[in-house]
Write a structure and sequence with these properties.
The protein is mainly alpha-helical and 292 residues long. It contains ten helices and eight strands.
Length: 292
């Protein structure tokens, strides 16, 4: 467990030492181990509050999400009961505040795994700005290690969770692609091939992964396989959407065919400066870095 938060959130209040985990099945871990939660509706209530942590979530929103847009006339009472039971389960009645028009779950830094993931990607961005590619790769690897599976996997059937988890999965994939870009810049192309082949098979329409695989194969002396990776991605895009690959991926193919020196590893070149986009680290990809 992490150390207790040292700074009060408001009015001198400090929450109990509890970790909340949504990057995988929903889990709550206290000082004495896992906290036993109630049934699906109580778990869903907690998940909704965690997705809106430190912000007020209205009773109307809770009822709509809990009852999938078909809230009964007793919905307000049911929400109040779920929150009351949740406070008991967490053992800290003050962690869930009643604030008009609903409730707010107050968390300190480090209590929510999503917040830790985002903080590590921000630290990686700063490392890239300082031209420390190795540290950035390590930070991104640590951030990705927080994930225990699909976000809120045990609530995957809930519409509110499906919307949230789609966004969270995109954050994970973006961080993964950025970590791979950093590893490529560090000359780890041979080590990446197996991982990238699995990722491209799982996400056949994700062109950045395809470009990364092509580069890793090319730098490993496997030009034919690199071109095959392009062909498979192009066929998937044409078959499913009737579109050609984006210019960056086509340029990657051209560069491989012509043995463009820009593809060679420059051990003196750090990954270029990162820019922030929301809470996501955005790094110019190897595909985007290919010149004419």
């Amino acid at each position: 467990m992490r150390s207790p938060p040292t700074g009060p959130l408001s009015n001198g209040y400090r929450p109990a030492v509890v970790e909340y985990r949504i990057l995988g099945p929903l889990e709550v871990v206290g000082e004495r181990g896992p906290v036993q939660l109630g049934g699906p509706r109580q778990r869903a209530t907690l998940a909704i509050l965690l997705l809106g942590a430190n912000r007020v979530v209205s009773v109307e929103r809770l009822a709509d999400d809990l009852y999938r847009g078909a809230a009964p006339v007793t919905a307000v009472t049911q929400v109040q009961r779920q929150v009351s039971e949740l406070r008991k389960a967490l053992g800290d009645a003050r962690s869930i505040e009643t604030r008009s028009p609903g409730y707010a779950l107050r968390l300190a830094p480090g209590q929510l795994d999503l917040e830790r993931f985002e903080r590590l990607t921000e630290q990686a961005a700063r490392s890239l700005l300082a031209r420390d590619t190795g540290l950035a790769a390590d930070l991104l690897r640590e951030a990705l290690g927080i994930w225990r599976g699909a976000a809120l996997a045990d609530l995957a059937g809930e519409p509110f969770a499906q919307i949230a988890t789609g966004r969270l999965e995109e954050l994970r994939l973006a961080a993964l692609e950025q970590r791979i870009d950093a590893d490529l810049a560090l000359g780890r192309h041979s080590e990446l091939i197996g991982e990238l082949e699995s990722l491209v098979a799982e996400h056949p329409l994700r062109e950045r992964l395809a470009a990364q695989l092509m580069l890793a194969l090319y730098r490993s002396g496997r030009q034919t396989q690199a071109l095959d990776a392009y062909r498979r991605t192009r066929e998937a895009l044409v078959d499913q959407f009737g579109i050609e690959p984006a210019p960056a991926l086509h340029e990657r193919q051209r560069a491989i065919l012509s043995h463009d020196p820009s593809l060679d590893l420059d051990r003196d070149r750090p990954v270029e400066a990162a820019e922030r986009k929301g809470a996501v680290l955005v790094v110019p990809s190897e595909a985007e870095a290919v010149g004419p």
